[in-house]
Amino acid sequence: MSKKSLPWFDAPAGKAGACPPLYLAPMAGFTDIAFRELCKQHGADVAVTEFVQAIPLVRGVARTWETIEFTESQRPAGVQVFGADPAMMAEAARLIEARLRPDFIDINYGCPAHKVVEQNAGSSLLRCPKLLEAIAHAVVRAVPATPVTAKMRIGWDAQNIVAVETARRLEDAGARAIAVHGRTRAQGYSGEADWAEIARVAAAVRVPVIGNGDIRDGAGAVCRFRESGVSGLMIGRAALGNPGLFSEIKFFFENGFAPPPPSAAECRAMLLSYAENVLRNAAGGIAGDAAWMLTKLHPFTHRLPGARKLRAGLSRCRTFADIEALLAGDAP
């Protein structure tokens, strides 16, 4: 199998205006199994789980598996793993492959969070090219039957842009595709994504490159895809509370204009559906405590009238019935 023969890694050929594969970016605390299901239903082609740390996975911490489980309907699905030790990362990949049989395993070289960076993992590895490459080599060797991909940022800061060099190292190590978030670690999620740098990466390697950063609507997706030469697009924060963004982007690629926005009733129904599915997947079930997951619902309120008041009301909810009553206007 050639490196470009997996359909979810590459743009469709021979059809003008065809939409490239759309990926849901992994986002800790948000891209849980219920949200991934919702995005797949609304047009996401590929789902990537929240990241999992290699060390507790290898040490047998049972709850570690909760964040990376997925349903068959979510395929093609990838599992993202992070860590700083090649042997530990390789063993984690073997465990993931044996238990979940994902369509690919993704290595995190992009997370800017302090708790990840202080372990010399995530985006910190952009400062350690030999270790970064050693980790990729180890994971690729550990799971020869499963494609290995990588997600990275363009550099540590504006003075250390290493995207092209890093992508070439990852390609040489056997990565089958590379997702590039067009920001540095120093930027966090501020400023603008550098799509010119993403384009340079796409031109520098043979494997598919997936562009990520500031994709908020169909028009922007079409523009960035056509100007950058990437093979796919990855959508992150803009999809939170708006899973329909994937179908909106596909509609724009096909028709050249945006579809009508969802109604308030449709937005409320989506919020309720997501809340119900989150709770059904939780230990307490639909009748259990809902307070722990209310922050997951906040992004869904942004498209509703009276969003601030609605979020304040959500903070007082303790059960799914409370959430239903609030959205129906029956809550105190």
Structural class: alpha/beta
What is the residue-mean pLDDT, rounded to a whole number? 93
Distance N to C terminus: 60 Å
Taking Cα atoms only, what radius of gyration do you get, to the nearest Å? 20 Å
Q: Give helix % range.
A: 25-40%
Kindly describe this structure.
By secondary structure, the protein is of the alpha/beta class. Helix content is 40%, strand content 14%. It is built from 13 helices and eight strands. An eight-stranded parallel barrel has the order 1-2-3-4-5-6-7-8, surrounded by six helices. Helix 3 (86-100) links the parallel strand 3 (77-82) and strand 4. Helix 8 (218-228) packs across helix 9 (245-255), helix 10 runs antiparallel to helix 11 (294-301) and helix 10 (264-280) packs antiparallel against helix 13 (320-328). The protein is globular.
List the helices and strands and how they pair.
Layout: E1 22-24, H1 33-41, E2 46-53, H2 54-58, E3 77-82, H3 86-100, E4 104-109, H4 114-117, H5 129-142, E5 148-155, H6 163-173, E6 177-184, H7 195-204, E7 209-212, H8 218-228, E8 232-235, H9 245-255, H10 264-280, H11 294-301, H12 307-314, H13 320-328
Parallel strand pairs: 1-2, 1-8, 2-3, 3-4, 4-5, 5-6, 6-7, 7-8
Helix pairs in contact: 1-10, 3-5, 5-6, 6-7, 8-9, 10-11, 10-13, 11-12
Essential attributes:
332 residues, alpha/beta
Give a brief outline of the structure.
This protein has 332 residues and is an alpha/beta fold. The protein is built from 13 helices and eight strands.
